[in-house]
Amino acid sequence: MRQKEHIHKKIIEASKKGDNRARYELYGLYSKAMFNICYRMMNNREEAEDMLQEAFTQAFTKLESFRYESNFGSWLKRIVVNTCINAINKRKVDLTYCEEIYDYDSEEENNEYEPEYTIANITQAMEQLPEGGRMIFSLYLLEGYDHGEIAQILKIKESTSKTQFMRAKRRVVELLKQTHGDAMDKI
Fold first, then answer.
1. I need a labelling partner for 159 at 20 to 30 A (CA). Which of 17, 21, 43, 151 fits?
2. Beta strand ranges found along 5-115 (DSSP E)
3. Residue among 34, 41, 138 at smallest CA distance from 76
4. Whether 71 contacts 2, CB under 8 Å
5. Which segments within 9-97 are labelled E, that is strand?
6. How far is residue 26's CA from residue 163's CA, in Å, rounded to a whole number?
7. In angstroms, rounded to a whole number, what is the distance separating the alpha carbons of residues 9 and 72?
8. pTM of the predicted protein model
9. Alpha carbon distance 15, 43 (integer Å)
10. Which of 24, 58, 90 finishes a domain?
11. Which of 16, 117, 14 is closest to 59 using CA atoms?
12. If residue 22 lies in a helix (H) or strand (E), which one and from where to where?
């Protein structure tokens, strides 16, 4: 593991000095994972590709500020997420957040049975979510942000993040029930 970190550090340092081969290598190491984040957030391949390029351009511009306090992937992921959020905000799309107070802890969940689904099934259901719900669902469930972090990133209340996540989750379950029928009745 240390050798891998050492190799990445050399590549990052060379990239900081403007070495285009090193930058290309960094792009090769991280582009696929970062594209997946862009695609989940933008829900459109062309827009995801644009956001990926914009995020890497920003990352290479800001590379001097990377201080190894976190791993490079986490640092880059934050740039990617912020790039996508900024693009969505520029479109001035109504994210249809509900500002009502929602008691997240009182939500009953039945986790006795969880059928296996492919990532493709869940991704397909996610693509049908409204943009705001899809973004929160993706940030929370797939990217690992907590509701406090999501609230800060999107400039919303934490309760709004929780509400939208629960609604998105319910909608994904509904969509999976529609396509998988009886298997979902046990959830």
1. 43
2. none
3. 34
4. no
5. none
6. 37
7. 9
8. 0.62
9. 30
10. 90
11. 16
12. helix 20-42
Nearest-angstrom CA–CA distance, 82 and 94: 18
Alpha-carbon distance 34 to 32, whole Å? Answer: 5
**Backbone φ and ψ of 177, nearest 5°:** -60, -40
Q: Which of 94, 162, 38 shows the shortest CA–CA distance to 170? A: 162
Q: Is residue 109 part of a domain?
A: yes
Spatial distance between the Cα atoms of 108 and 87, rounded to a whole number of angstroms? 35
Instruction: Based on DSSP, count helices (H) and strands (E) in the chain, helices before strands.
Output: 8, 0
**The residue count for the chain:** 187
**Domain ranges, residue 140:** 104-186
CATH number of 153's domain: 1.10.10.10
Over its length of 187 residues, how does the chain's per-residue pLDDT go in tens digits? 444 445 589 999 999 999 999 999 999 999 999 999 999 888 889 999 999 999 999 999 999 999 888 889 989 999 999 999 888 877 754 444 433 334 444 444 444 444 456 667 777 888 888 888 888 888 888 788 889 888 888 888 999 999 999 999 899 888 888 887 655 444 4
Task: Please identify which residue in the block is written with the tokens 């912020």.
Answer: 82
